[in-house]
Design the sequence.
């Protein structure tokens, strides 16, 4: 039997020489799957290859063919900043326009996802502000003696 190393693509090969891209989490399991395939158990390797092909299909092929208005599965609409799970949760909560297909998968369109992204709340970073603004006349650095005097005037001593 021919070793699988001679047939299956290595995950670090140039992309033009392999049929599918492996996710970084998948590439760590690839050597173990190849060893098991060499021991006449091709199941794990077949699963890795099938998942890589499906991931690439959803990520590159389906969105290119579908266009902006056609309903496609949510994994095909996921981006680096918005995962398929985040889209699914938004669809369940009613924030993303989507339809649940008869097979249980959520489907939406690129236009609806773009609309959802535009309507999302974007948190901006702001420095901590105190609740009560300080008066402008208060000196920035005060000596201990001046603090005692202000306390005495405040407390009525």
Sequence:
């Amino acid at each position: 039997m021919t070793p699988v190393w001679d047939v299956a693509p290595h995950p670090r090969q140039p992309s033009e020489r392999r049929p599918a891209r492996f996710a970084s989490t998948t590439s760590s399991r690839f050597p173990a799957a190849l060893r098991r395939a060499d021991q006449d158990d091709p199941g794990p390797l077949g699963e890795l290859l099938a998942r890589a092909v499906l991931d690439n299909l959803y990520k590159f092929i389906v969105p290119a063919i579908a266009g902006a208005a056609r309903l496609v599965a949510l994994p095909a609409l996921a981006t680096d900043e918005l995962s398929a799970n985040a889209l699914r949760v938004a669809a369940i909560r009613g924030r993303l326009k989507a339809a649940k297909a008869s097979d249980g998968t959520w489907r939406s369109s690129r236009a609806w996802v773009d609309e959802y992204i535009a309507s999302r709340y974007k948190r901006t970073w702001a420095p901590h502000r105190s609740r009560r603004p300080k008066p402008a006349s208060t000196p920035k650095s005060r000596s201990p003696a001046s603090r005692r005097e202000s306390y005495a005037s405040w407390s009525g001593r």
Summary: The mean pLDDT is 76. Residues 68-120 form one domain.
